[in-house]
Each structure stands twice: as structure tokens, then as C-alpha cells.
């Protein structure tokens, strides 16, 4: 038996800069309001019928299931982006699909690539009609060492 399926989710993103890659990633997590939690990285399925909610403060130290995209870069002046997109099926009894993307460059092309992966994954690969696609991105111009993070957080 596995735990109960998450019934809610929210999108969040953040960016940060520091002197090391791990510290930059930590700063991006704090910016996204998930930095004081223990992240459990998931593959990319949204449970059937899950509804989007507004982000809220997570209990410090909690175990947080999420699907995320991230990128750390060490080149000052580089622009980096991370995105996630969620495909919501027309049929609420079917699972949705989450895709992640990260790359050098502006957020717009990264987010569009992520949304296109959702379209292909649902319509082409799974044969599932899409009701809507929701997405979020983070972008950052690196100062020392930079990081970007975008996630879909699953909640009870």
C-alpha cells in the first residue's frame, strides 16, 4: 500500500546567486519558498483530479514531493532559465503530466519548450486530450555562480 494520492498542487520558482553551486541552488530554493524543506524529487505525473492551489508556507523540515527543473551555472553574465509545465487532461479521471526544462537563455523559449513537451507527452505519446497547460519559469543573470529552479509541489 502506498500513501494517499496528493489532491492539490502548486507551481513555484526561484533564482539565486552565491559563491558555490550548492549555495546558489539553496538560494534559489529559498527564493521559491521551499528552501527549508526536504525535497523528494518525483517523476512527472500529476494525480487524477488534483487541483491547483495558491503557494503556501510549508512546515520547516517537512518532506515535500515535487517535480522540478533546475540549472546551476558558473559563468558570470550568463542568463539561465528553468521551467515546469503541467498538462491537465480533459477527462478528470486521467493523470496529468508534468515536464521540466532548463537551459541557458531567456525564460520564454525554455517555458515554451516545456509546454511543447507536455503537448507531445499527452496528446502524441499517451493519446490524451489536454484541457489546459499551466507553467512557470525562473530566469537569472549569473553574477558569481547562479541557479534557477521551477517546480510543481504536490500536497495532500
TrEMBL record:
It catalyses: L-arginine + H(+) = agmatine + CO2. The keyword Lyase applies. InterPro entries: Pyr-dep_his/arg-deCO2ase, Pyr-dep_his/arg-deCO2ase_sand, Pyruvoyl-dep_arg_deCO2ase. Keywords: Decarboxylase, Lyase, Pyruvate. It holds the Pfam family PvlArgDC. It is an enzyme of class 4 (lyase). Its cofactor is pyruvate. Its EC number is 4.1.1.19. GO terms for molecular function: arginine decarboxylase activity. It comes from the Bacteria. One of its GO terms (biological process) is L-arginine catabolic process. Belongs to the pyruvoyl-dependent arginine decarboxylase family. This is Pyruvoyl-dependent arginine decarboxylase AaxB. It comes from Desulfomonile tiedjei. The lineage of its organism: Bacteria, Pseudomonadati, Thermodesulfobacteriota, Desulfomonilia, Desulfomonilales.
Amino acid at each position: 500500500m502506498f500513501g494517499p494520492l496528493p489532491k492539490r498542487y502548486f507551481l513555484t520558482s526561484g533564482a539565486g546567486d552565491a559563491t558555490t553551486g550548492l549555495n546558489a541552488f539553496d538560494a534559489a530554493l529559498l527564493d521559491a519558498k521551499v528552501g527549508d524543506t526536504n525535497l523528494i524529487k518525483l517523476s512527472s505525473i500529476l494525480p487524477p483530479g488534483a487541483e491547483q492551489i495558491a503557494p503556501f508556507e510549508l512546515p520547516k523540515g517537512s518532506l515535500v514531493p515535487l517535480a522540478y527543473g533546475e540549472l546551476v551555472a558558473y559563468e558570470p553574465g550568463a542568463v539561465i532559465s528553468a521551467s515546469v509545465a503541467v498538462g491537465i487532461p480533459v477527462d478528470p479521471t486521467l493523470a496529468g503530466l508534468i515536464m521540466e526544462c532548463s537551459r541557458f537563455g531567456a525564460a520564454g523559449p525554455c517555458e515554451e519548450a516545456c509546454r511543447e513537451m507536455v503537448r507531445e507527452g499527452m496528446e502524441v505519446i499517451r493519446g490524451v486530450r489536454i484541457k489546459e497547460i499551466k507553467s512557470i519559469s525562473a530566469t537569472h543573470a549569473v553574477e558569481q555562480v547562479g541557479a534557477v529552479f521551477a517546480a510543481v509541489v504536490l500536497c495532500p
